[in-house]
Amino acid sequence: MNHDRTVRAATLAVFTVLATPALLLASPGARAASPQRTAYWQAVPADIKTATYLVDWVPATGMASVTDGVSRASGHYTDDGVQRLVTLDSPSVKSEAIWPRPDDCGIYVNARTSLTRYAFVRTGGTDRHGHTEVHEEAQTVLTEGCNAGRIVASTSLSDAVPAQAHLNLSARPSMSDLVPGVQIAGFSSMPVLAVPVLSASLAQDIADLLPGGQIRFHGEGFTVPATVPYQFTADQWLMLGLPGVDRRYTRLEVNPDTGAETWMAAEFAAGAPQWTAAVLVTKAQPRVTPLTMQQAAHVWRSGLSRSEFMFFDIELYPDMTGTRVSLDRPTGGEFRTPLTWAFSGNGITQSWATRGAQVERTWIPIGDRGRQHWVMEYDRYVDNEGASSTGMARVNFYADKGPATPPAARAALPARR
User: Fold this and answer.
1) Angle value at C-alpha 340, between 336 and 346, nearest 5 degrees
2) What is the architecture, at CATH level 2, of domain 183-284?
3) Percentage of the chain with pLDDT > 90?
4) Mean per-residue pLDDT, 20-26
């Protein structure tokens, strides 16, 4: 298996982004060598969380620039009409961390993961819009200790990977509907946390677009309220005026049935992106009617945890108890954790015990689309010593699967013939 998942973890659920037109025009012949900008991403939610990229293809020169959730790299590429093979000018370091197993001397030492080539293999559609498998050639090497230089993990261009959607950025959905008065959930005004999975390191928030080019963040979870300027760039990015940070968002796709939108987040420096990430976004409803007891005591299926292989349900019962249920679809197996719940303001707070801590998850309602209940959710952890911490807020949607039946009542029901 070569620990493929370990190598890919550094680039999980992220995007690649390109240089701005102003930067490209700064060099001679840039107009003739204008790039074709293409995003590659896995839909949110997805069965398998894969890396996401935005690649700046320059056919006139055979150059390509790739930015993912860790770094930006450039190289040359060849194109046979189906596969584009990118060879980087120099290895791109994706992570440097302690390897989880000791070396032959019994010491835990540092390891470096470096990527050298990409293969973008189109499996459907056209260059403008379709599906592509993105393969990475990378190695993880011990950098110290008695086994320095040993390769301990790798991925190759022949590894099986799931296909991702791709879209030329010239075909992105319009953002003309984002006008003052619109409330949107999923953007962030907070700094990026130092964790390897960038899609999980931006604390999401609810924000209002205000007149005069201002955006107001509410401060959910551990985020703080903030009002900052924003503007739309000529190349269709929403740019936030955060102090010392050039953060931008652009819309990739909209699901009209669920209201789910996939957006690309990026931070730029000197006109070039430094990292990118996929985010789940939705247009919120400023005045959401709280759920009644009859409406809340249902089975709620998580949108972010739904896949071909599993479901994750929250069962809320009328007696203020409930169950967290993980469902393995291939085997039909279940893992159930009891919880209690209560109304909290306009939302709901659930509480359950985990190893060494009590967890409280708060749902803040942000809208409904048919039977999809959209929430901003965050966790608060209280350990056995009484110390507490609050997790990052995130956007999620739950499908209403109907009234929830407590286990005791379900057991008393007559067997089906």
Assistant:
1) 120
2) Beta Barrel (2.40)
3) 57
4) 31
